[in-house]
Amino acid sequence: MPPADTAFTSDAIHVLITGFGPFRNYSENPSWLAVKALHDAILSTTKAQHASSANGAPRTRQIYVTVLEVPVVYENVLQIVPGLHKKPPVLPSPIDPAFTPTHLPSGGFDFILHVGVAKPGGVSLEQLGHKLGYNAVDAENKYAPVVQVPDGSDGETQPMRGFGKGYEGMPEELSTVIDIAGLKQHLQELGTEKVRWSRDARHYLCDFIYYASLAEAKRSAAEQAKMTPVLFLHCCPQGEPYQTEEVTDVIKAIVTWVSARL
């Protein structure tokens, strides 16, 4: 952890990484276990990751990481995500005070990475977030907001749930601007063989936070002429096949690769 008076370099990159809290049979969410290891971490891009600078010399840039645990609750996601994209960012009080950030960038985050757990088999880089189709209850046994009730509903047909008020002008799907194919290749070259490129984030809280964050990035870009790249990573349960430390390494590799391209 950097001390409170850490001097940030002028070209420092500020990254937010979120993981999820407990839900269902996970008393500790594997995503948060992997993310929290990077609390207030200082990473660095490598010279090899950068194109040459204007004077012809490769350079490196420092990366300052903020982490946040997010409840697996639709309402919390809707309340929290808009603040993550503000300048300066507005974060909720941490669930565990030990993860209070020591610094928030006045100019906002340069990259936001969301992480959640999925099925065994590796990790998945998600391309899309979806606006509608959230029919499963969250960790508080509550549903996503109703967007539309079917005409002539007999009470048995499920209403359409997802993003309504405030998201009317947003499309059905939002895509990351990050080069998923290039990132997948990079991770595999580093030794993470089981990496999927996915277009289905599963219409649960992972998909929900991804769409919310992509929408806020789009909204902020229209207002402030700066698009903050957003990405969602699905990790596997612990040891299926990757251990927590290995997932943390994947996260670090993603952060440095994306940061070198900002």
UniProtKB/TrEMBL annotation:
InterPro entries: Peptidase_C15-like (IPR016125), Peptidase_C15-like_sf (IPR036440). It comes from the Eukaryota. Keywords: Hydrolase, Protease, Thiol protease. GO terms for molecular function: cysteine-type peptidase activity. The keyword Hydrolase applies. Belongs to the peptidase C15 family. This is Peptidase C15, pyroglutamyl peptidase I-like protein. It comes from Phanerochaete carnosa (strain HHB-10118-sp).
